[in-house]
Amino acid sequence: MAAPARSVAVPALSPKLLSVALLSVGLMLLLAYLVGFDQGAVSQSGMFLHELMHDGRHLLGVPCH
Questions:
Q1: pTM for the whole thing?
Q2: Where do transmembrane segments lie in this chain (predicted)?
Q3: Residue 38: inside a domain, yes or no?
Q4: What average pLDDT values come out for the chain (65 residues) when binned by 10 residues?
């Protein structure tokens, strides 16, 4: 005879928590773009952003030279 199934309570996701999570993901994607994509030779914003993010790029292991 099989044991009776247990019910597990799953908390509801509130709209406020969902909006904060989506905003956080968006900011992280923007940060990844700024640090990883905008590199010197193919820079879309000039060398200022490249130099500003230089150390962060090396910290993440993204080559830039």
A1: 0.51
A2: 17-37
A3: yes
A4: 79 88 94 71 67 78 73
